[in-house]
């Protein structure tokens, strides 16, 4: 009985394989007759290293009067700029933005009383430099900055790839070649060949962490990692020969 069951199972599998082959053959024949073009997606990736760091340092001054708060923030921004210059960054890489003032309101039981307790003034000091490694080292040890009693909040550095525009053209060409190679593999099954390009649709570029699988329909630009991967995607429609 066991042998009969095994034989019956093998027969069912054999029939299924034959049916699948017939369906595939029919699909290929239909594809060959359906039209005179094929649309294929191609992609290309390039590993890059961030070559520009943007580091924002928010210097805060708080006091009972707006004038005193502004003075504390201004003095802190001057000392922050001097600290960055001492680390070897040129003056042209440092930008001190205009101060922003906030009123510190009194709250009682979660509701504002209308009374102003004081003022907080923030001055943002921004550093833009190609010395990515130095910024990463400083950001990892902000104690050196805080140790000088500067009332500053250091934001996480942004790591950018400034030469991305130069990379777009070569990556698109590589992605198009990839699309053509895929189309050629598919068309081998129907005895046809890739002809001229009829249409190209360029997708958004994705700049992600190295080996990341994250993507976004509107494009992605990761700024948290120095090691990045740039991905280009195209949809190409080829005529058939």
Q: Uncertain segments of ≥5 residues (pLDDT<50)?
A: 1-34
Q: Beta-sheet strand percentage? A: 35-45%
Report helical residue fraction.
Answer: 25-40%
- What is the typical, i.e. mean, pLDDT? 85
Helical/strand content category: alpha+beta
Helix count equals 5
Distance between the termini: 56 Å
Order of helices and strands: HEEHEEEHHEEHEEEE
Rounded radius of gyration (Å): 31 Å
Main sheet specs: 6 strands, antiparallel
* E-strand count: 11
Q: What is the overall shape? A: elongated
Descriptive report:
The chain is α+β, with helices and mostly antiparallel strands and 241 residues long. The protein has five helices and eleven strands; from the N terminus they run αββαβββααββαββββ. The strands form two sheets. Strands 2, 3, 4, 5, 6 and 7 form a six-stranded antiparallel sheet that branches. Strands 1, 8, 9, 10 and 11 form a five-stranded mixed sheet that branches. Strand 4 and strand 5 form a beta hairpin. The relative contact order is 0.20.
């Amino acid at each position: 009985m066991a042998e009969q069951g095994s034989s019956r199972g093998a027969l069912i599998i054999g029939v299924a394989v034959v049916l699948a082959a017939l369906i595939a053959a029919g699909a290929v024949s239909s594809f060959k007759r359906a039209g005179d073009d094929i649309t294929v997606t191609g992609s290309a990736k390039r590993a890059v290293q961030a070559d520009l760091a943007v580091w924002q340092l928010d210097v805060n001054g708080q006091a009972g009067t707006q004038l005193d708060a502004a003075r504390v923030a201004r003095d802190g921004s001057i000392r922050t700029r001097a600290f960055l210059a001492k680390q070897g960054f040129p003056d042209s890489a440092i930008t001190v933005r205009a101060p922003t003032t906030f009123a510190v309101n009194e709250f009682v039981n979660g509701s504002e009383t209308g009374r102003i307790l004081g003022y907080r003034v923030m001055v943002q000091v921004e550093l833009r430099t190609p010395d990515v490694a130095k910024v990463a080292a400083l950001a990892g040890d902000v104690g050196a900055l805080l140790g000088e009693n500067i009332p500053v909040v250091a934001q996480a550095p942004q790591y950018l790839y400034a030469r991305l525009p130069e990379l777009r053209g070569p990556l698109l060409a590589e992605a198009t070649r990839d699309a053509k190679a895929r189309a050629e593999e598919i068309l081998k099954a129907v005895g046809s060949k890739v002809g001229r390009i009829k249409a190209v649709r360029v997708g958004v570029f994705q700049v992600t962490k190295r080996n990341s699988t994250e993507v976004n329909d509107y494009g992605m630009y990761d700024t948290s990692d120095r090691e990045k991967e740039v991905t280009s995607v195209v949809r190409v429609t080829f005529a058939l020969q």
